[in-house]
Amino acid sequence: MRWSELELAQAVKVAEDINSYRGARRIANGVSNIRLALSDATELRSGIWGSFPVVFMRQLYRELGFDENRIFKWRLEHKLVQALLLNHFAPGCGPATRALGVFRRAAGGCHLQAALETEFPSGFYLKPALGDSSGDSDTPDRTNQILAACAEDDGGNSCGRLFGERFLIQERVPIAREYRVHTLEDRLIPDLTFHRYEKGDIPGERDAPNAFVQGILDRLPNGVVAGTICGWDVARTVNSTLVVIEVNFSGFHPLHNRGFQCSGWFHDEKWGALSAARLVRFLEQRCGVKVSIEADRPDLETENEFYADVNRCRELLRDGAFT
Q1: Are residues 180 and 285 located together in one domain of the fold?
Q2: pLDDT tens per residue across span 141-167
Q3: Are the C-beta atoms of residues 187 and 131 closer than 8 Å to each other?
């Protein structure tokens, strides 16, 4: 087994704390009307990471009654912690993931790369435990760079705690296609699934990754799904199996790129307003939440235009111009 018993045991302790969470899911708890007025959002511009449209998502988060800090008390932005917990609640949903520091210490005097190749005969991938866009097509594989840092005793350090690990090892997945899937609490948003690195709708291709993620959501406890909007990176392998690469939680990330973050699809230059409008449509049609959007600060030209664009896209969706 390529999962570490030591790390899995630590994850069980975190899982027990998560299972003790008793907060209610907001959508299932009667949220019925929200007002998104730009004039009420200007103070939210401080403490975001990304372009202005992130403020729209932060305001939506606030008006839904979601706590932008809660999920991170369990350090679910840390990719090792996240992978271990997902495997705990939904075994086998992602590739085997290990802490590089723990692995390196256990390997002792063995050559690190040789030990990794023995443990992961189908290949491995090293990446920072904190970061973003680590899998983007234009981001170089940092495996060799991290191995070199370890050789110089400058990487792979471990403090004995999961969230103290700087780097992780992930079993290499033979990816044929990667998707970004979006969820709201324990509900999947059907038309917000796209190819990870390509723009455009994929209506006939969404069913499999959507069903896969919904199956995982159904197994996650309230502590993970309540008050969350997530972007899931899901890979389809060359053998047509599906695996979770990582999950991007919206909210106020405490360390790396400190500030409120959300899926890039909501602040993409071309697709941001349409993606936000699809989320609003989902809230209205599937969750019974009436949403008012007001572009009421014409003096803030760029920001006002985005709120207006979300409204325009919402009307186009209602008229059937987009599916």
Answers
A1: yes
A2: 778 888 887 766 644 455 567 888 999
A3: no
